[in-house]
Amino acid sequence: MSSLDIAASPPIRCDETVQIALLLAFAGGYIDAYTWIIHGVMANAQTANLVLLWVYATVGEWERALHFVPPIAAFMVGVVIAAWLRRSTGDRASAISTLVEIVLLVAVGILHNRLPDLAGTLGISFVAAMQTTIFTKVEGVAYSSVMITGNLRQAIEGLFAVVSGQLGSFRRPGIFAALCVAFGAGAAVGAYATKSIPDLALGLPVVALLIALLRCEIRSTEERT
After folding, report:
1. How far apart are CA 98 and CA 160, in angstroms?
2. Is 12 left (phi over 0), alpha (psi -120 to 50) or beta?
3. 187 with 33: CB under 8 angstroms?
4. 141-142 and 137-138 as β-strands: parallel, antiparallel, unpaired?
5. CB-hemisphere CA count at 13 Å for 12?
6. Which has the closest alpha carbon to 177: 140, 152, 143?
7. Residue 85 and residue 157: Cα distance in Å, rounded?
8. Residues 135, 25 contacting (CB under 8 angstroms)
9. Where are the beta strands (DSSP E) in 93-188?
10. Helix count (H) and strand count (E) of the chain?
11. At what angle do helices 171-196 and 203-224 cross, to 10 degrees?
12. Rounded-to-integer distance, Cα 155 and Cα 153, Å
């Protein structure tokens, strides 16, 4: 069965709702723009970091090549910690990881002028890793909140499926198209804010993550009562 097929399932988990996915995609695009402008690396797109590492290493520019090693290493550690958190805390993993992300982004934002580039890069790449590891589905279908390649493929594939009569609703491709737009909007806002108010720039993704956390907590409370 294609991943585009909507399977019958229980009520959608809070951390898999479209609203939460859009907030996370906005934050993902935002912090990628921030780290590129401030630190010259990608927080989310480790493919780009790895390519640039080998491009510079191949021509013998080792100092520039090694610049891309810390975010890759921090991302790897973040994935391991998130996987452990998911195994240890179950359904609470999404809330706990979001809280950790908020705390780390606030810390990096407050200490922005005092932290070396390396520390800021490590913290933000760690945040991106936790987000992409914990939040993996929207309405039961795999997606990414920190890059758009897979989401763009899903949007185009889904649109083709509707047009060719294989799928009856535009909802699924519409969701993935919206995720691409949200990521792009986050990158645009992040670039503008980072250049305009660099000391306060990380406040906006913190707000987006805080809204996502509160929405999930409120819904969880309502479901328990």
Report:
1. 35
2. beta
3. yes
4. antiparallel
5. 16
6. 152
7. 33
8. no
9. 137-138, 141-142
10. 9, 2
11. 140
12. 5
Q: The tokens of 191 are what?
A: 């670039």
Which amino acid is present at 98? T
Residue 127 one-letter amino acid: V
Please say whether the beta carbons of 202 and 105 come within 8 A.
yes
**In this structure, which amino acid lies at residue 130?**
M
SS3 174: helix
Nearest alpha-carbon partner for 41 in 33, 141, 138:
33
Taking only the tens of pLDDT, the chain with its 225 residues reads 444 444 445 677 888 999 999 999 999 999 999 988 888 888 777 888 899 999 999 999 998 899 889 889 999 999 999 999 999 988 888 999 999 999 999 988 887 767 766 677 788 889 889 999 999 999 989 999 988 999 999 999 999 999 988 777 889 999 999 999 999 999 999 999 999 998 889 999 999 999 999 988 887 666 666
